[in-house]
Amino acid sequence: MLFLCLLLAIGISSGRKVSEHRKISRIAFGSCANQFGNTNPEIFYSIANWKPEIYIWLGDIIYADRYSLPKIFIPTDEKSWRLKYNNFKNSNEYQNLMNTTMITGIYDDHDYGINDGDKSFIYKELGKKLVLEFLDDGSIRDHEGIYHSFVFEDLKLILLDVRWFRDNKWDNEGDSIGEEQWAWLEKELQSGERVKIIGNGLQVNTFDRSGPAEKWHEKSRLRLWKLLDKYPGVLLLSGDVHYGELLRIPCSKHVVYEMTSSGLTHSVFSTYNMISWYFLNIWQSFTFNVGKKYLHKNFGTIEIDWEAQIIHVSIRDSYNIPQIEHTILINELYGPNPDIEFCQADFKVLKYKHALSAFAVFILPFLLIFLATMIFLRKYSNSF
Ligand SMILES: [Fe+2]
């Protein structure tokens, strides 16, 4: 009876702690949940049914900030912030996932506390405290920010904090992760595990965005590339954009892959319908995609066959059906990369193509309407 009372008093199950130094082969990950009260229980049951040994959050576990015009997003108070985490943690689908697998992760902007949050966010200590309480993965992150790493025999998982030290998004010379974290990251990459997974909230390899948000600062992206040239064997994971994709970047001494899974409970398609298809396939169509962009709710999976030295990756829908699949040879992550010669040329072509597609999306429709109006007016006036 006393035990039952204790359980009731505690209320929320604390979940499994991450236990290191054992072989891991099955990893699932995802981001962006619980915005505007959206839920998608099926997807959390699907993740559990896939039987990952670890599940990684890549940010926007909850949307702590509130939608309020004219500023669009404003921070919330501690009570409502905590309540959002607790409501989700108490849900049947999340309890089921917690009982199935180890869970860890990092925040992105909305669970950090504010849309597009950076180093200047005044409630960042609270954001850190609440996300670590929610994750409760047994890790000790007693430094600025919440970057961390775990080692599972020949696999290292590195989680980067792209909010705590981040310069303003409009700062062209800005840095995304801060000197302290750069020094730590280089040290982490020096260890000898065969495969290293770097997970963070923001997409790294985006060449088709005109805005400053939703990506690393350009200088930081290039700095990360240099590090990856020096320390290969890395697979990048990211979230944030509310669709899923797999990028294969040939612009390094070895091939770099980036897997993006975003939108567990909402996606660009569930929010914007066909408009999202138009933008992502016309305006943002020129990337290094392997397969299509998947615009619906999704989670990501990584399955490592240590004997065959291959990694099978997929982006799956709410019902566990793979929508993007690819097999990576671990050797491929170590190069040498035969495509590197074409890399810079590709970048220039990408930029021109992107300018053309921006023209097609934003200017061409107006030109066509103008032309049609002129033709109509001319015809109309000629008839008199
Ligand atoms: Fe999000």
Bound molecules: fe (ii) ion
How many beta-strand runs? 14
Shape: globular
Pick out the low-confidence regions.
1-11
In terms of DSSP E residues, the strand content is 15-25%
InterPro entries: Metallo-depent_PP-like, PhoD-like_MPP, PhoD-like_sf
Keywords: Membrane, Signal, Transmembrane, Transmembrane helix
Signal peptide: 1-15
Organism: Stentor coeruleus
Outline the fold blueprint.
Layout: H1 2-10, E1 26-30, H2 41-50, E2 54-58, E3 66-68, E4 72-74, H3 78-90, H4 92-100, E5 102-106, H5 109-112, H6 124-135, E6 148-152, E7 155-159, H7 179-189, E8 195-199, H8 218-230, E9 234-238, E10 245-249, E11 256-260, H9 268-272, H10 274-283, E12 299-305, E13 310-316, E14 322-329, H11 343-382
Helix pairs in contact: 2-4, 3-6, 10-11
Fe (ii) ion binds at residues 32, 60, 110, 240, 242.
Fill in the keyword field for this structure.
single chain, 384 residues, alpha/beta, Purple Acid Phosphatase, chain A, domain 2, 2 domains, 6-stranded mixed sheet, 14 strands, 35% helix, disordered N terminus, binds fe (ii) ion
Give a description of the structure.
InterPro entries: Metallo-depent_PP-like (IPR029052), PhoD-like_MPP (IPR018946), PhoD-like_sf (IPR038607). Keywords: Membrane, Signal, Transmembrane, Transmembrane helix. Residues 1-15 form the signal peptide. This is PhoD-like phosphatase metallophosphatase domain-containing protein. It is built from eleven helices and 14 strands. The protein is an alpha/beta fold. The chain folds into two domains: 14-336, Purple Acid Phosphatase, chain A, domain 2 (4-Layer Sandwich); 347-384. The strands form three sheets. It has a six-stranded mixed β-sheet with strand order 5-2-1-12-13-14. Helix 2 (41-50) packs parallel to helix 4 (92-100) and helix 10 crosses helix 11 (343-382). The radius of gyration is 22 Å and the shape is globular. The model is unreliable at 1-11 (pLDDT under 50). The structure holds fe (ii) ion.
